[in-house]
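To assess whether the prediction recovers the assembly geometry, we first specified each molecular entity separately, as shown.
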Amino acid sequence: MASSLISRQFALSLQKNLHLSAPGCRYVSKAAPKTQLEFDYDGPSMKTSVPGPRSEELRKQLGHIQNVGAINFFCNYEESRGNYLVDVDGNRMLDIYTQISSIPIGYNHPDLLKLLSDPSNLSTLVNRPALGILPPENFPEKLTESLVSVAPSGMTRVQTMACGSCSNENAYKAMFIWYRNKERGHNTPSEEDLSSCIINQSPGCPELSILSFMGGFHGRTMGCLATTHSKAIHKLDVPSFDWPIAPFPSLQYPLEEFTRENAQEEARCLEEVEDLIVKWRQKGKPVAGVVIEPIQAEGGDNHASSDFFRGLRDIARKHGCAFHVDEVQTGGGTTGKMWAHEHWGMEDPADIVSFSKKLLTGGFYHKDEFQADEPYRIFNTWMGDPSKNLVLSEVLNVIRRENLLEEVNRSGKALMTGLVELQAQYPGMLSRARGVGTFCAIDICDDGTRNRILITARDKGILLGGCGDRSIRFRPALVFKEYHVHLFLNIFNDVLAQLK
Amino acid sequence: MASSLISRQFALSLQKNLHLSAPGCRYVSKAAPKTQLEFDYDGPSMKTSVPGPRSEELRKQLGHIQNVGAINFFCNYEESRGNYLVDVDGNRMLDIYTQISSIPIGYNHPDLLKLLSDPSNLSTLVNRPALGILPPENFPEKLTESLVSVAPSGMTRVQTMACGSCSNENAYKAMFIWYRNKERGHNTPSEEDLSSCIINQSPGCPELSILSFMGGFHGRTMGCLATTHSKAIHKLDVPSFDWPIAPFPSLQYPLEEFTRENAQEEARCLEEVEDLIVKWRQKGKPVAGVVIEPIQAEGGDNHASSDFFRGLRDIARKHGCAFHVDEVQTGGGTTGKMWAHEHWGMEDPADIVSFSKKLLTGGFYHKDEFQADEPYRIFNTWMGDPSKNLVLSEVLNVIRRENLLEEVNRSGKALMTGLVELQAQYPGMLSRARGVGTFCAIDICDDGTRNRILITARDKGILLGGCGDRSIRFRPALVFKEYHVHLFLNIFNDVLAQLK
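The predicted structure of the complete assembly is given in tokenized form:
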């Protein structure tokens, strides 16, 4: 009773705030374009609690083959549409987590169904080439249409890879190779280089390092893992490298109210970065590259200012270290620009930019000088998958055709406004609403409450994910419109009221 | 003139040897089944030298985006069929390298075209899930039909991954986790474990190691790379771990003529393995696992006996190390059994078996005790790709339906007989013909001649690959029949005669 009253009050306040006129608790925003409705449902629809009985049955089956501890539920992808994920028990949820932020334009987008039904694309699906030695005829064209068409400023070169971890591993290798080539004055490697590397010894396998940040996440293979510092469960029991780890700025929100304090905090972190670079050089393990996410995602959606990133790049340059921006989670349009680092407004922002997830293929862009001097240095059997480039090419067409980056900015504003409102309404429960585009997050008072919110929201048809110690991260697809924002806010308000 | 004479003599000797009656240089073996011809060409057809002008043009285009130094030529996958790869200049080559050994049943197999044209599979191609949290309904069924149906002896559990390197990286992590859990007596990790691992320090990130072999290849990400010791170009300039590296037996061929010498050599290597395990334990970097290929592939197709592998497994067991068999290149049927290690005839051959390439998806099988105790320890966003499991499932159906393992054994025998014959005919040029099934290799007198053979063969319509310092490796698809063997041998003989 109390909760439904609050919900109605909240809906009214939202309408006032957003200047929307439709009355009632669940309304269709006037801004919602028709094109969306063609392949989207009109709201969540729940038949069982989640996971339902069919999910439980399948979980038992799969449990004979794999660890199923992380499985939320089993999905009916055939019936899923747009922003809605349907499970095997017939529950339909508004998906604001999108497979750990990896679905760019929703489920079963009609243009993708059409593309993959086209018989002329069949060969790309059936014959996976070893791209590094025998690429298909249309490979340069598809690369140009897809990844090259959205290349970050200053970069014309891109190497595809199979996943995010492989992308970062190979980006690190490219930085090590670049660094050692500089050290050798671009001369041929010595006999000692060649013979020592075979047995893992220096100088062939040099004592170089990558500087990373506390709270960062860059993947789970062993090179990446040495730069990942978000959760113990990722790293426990795996041998690592003695590489420098700098503090990431711990900012106070709302950012505009704490400019001075935040600037001080960022200056402190930059100073520490420079100290570490000097210290590790003295240790005989020079920093070949600095890696950072534009927004620390897995680590709790931690932001820093453009000034911080500019300062960081300058420090990297000053000390001859490469600057690698990891856009695996932030890239692909969800911040309202194709790359989150474009918000920095820098002309020459980075040396290397890695990606995966919403780009459907892994890989990394790099400046010319980071191309390995010889073939077979950055190499593996598949080097990506042309069938993913094919789909990405069409995804980018859809983003342009449907002006999805504009939509993201519009939805993002509505989402942030709503989160700030809710935060004012539940001050003991919510804090630190933050975000760029729809790449938003909010903190919950404690981990237990966070998890109760996630489960209750799911049972009401809203799929969300956590990050950091006690944050909820919002990672909708690019087709998440204002209409969906309001739908979400209404239900989220119900959840908060219920758990208050 | 001389070369064509030799060629004819050789063809005659082959016919005598193989008891085949069709006369002339290029004949159809009576053993060639009709089913093959439905989607195969009847021989190579060359229009230009390779790479041709269209390939050169595309290479220039792609050169603006990537390092193209390793590219052989560009392919027309639409026109490729069965054992024949067609390039963009209309050249059709008999493919005995199959995209670095990763095409299981040839190009455009009709059953795969049918499968991927089926509208009911469209959703699997369009919606890539985060398999570890939100698998599709048919995931347990497809896993059971595909990977579980060919699980190595003693293993019921399998984890999919995106590529070979990720498979081995995660297999290593599984071994480290298993080893540390044993050390902790399966108690909860300590506070110190949890806090130290975040900053790459022990005890949370322990000083454990993986023992590998000289000449081995296990991938190119940093964990894998620390166990790869085949070529300097793979490893140069990349930091590594101080892990033990044992000698791989250097056997004399033909194996049956050197049993005593080879047994001694294998005993020497096993002794060294045991010494290294003891030494690294004393160093404070205990060996958590031993990794080995059943046949060292990239390193030069180096074989060892079943006794060696049995001895190695016993040593690993004795010292509490896991035993990981890397079947990324050897797995999938090309040795005449699904897994090369099945040739050892052991009941309990391994703790972990990793795969990729011809299995179309990466991953690893493991014994129950190697399943991580908690979720999210062996984890990433995609954890493989169900569209690859779908295709693999049909590939395995084709293998069973068309008895392809039997075919491989038949073709393999013909190939080995032919190679041994050629070796007798060109003793100054060829040596050490060796192989299991069609997984064969032969040594060439020197690297330069090897490369001339590869290029000349390509211009005559035979696509081959090198391995090691001066070997040629044969890696045909499973649909490579006796007919193709004879076709290859005839042309190969021409090449050798020409370069003699």
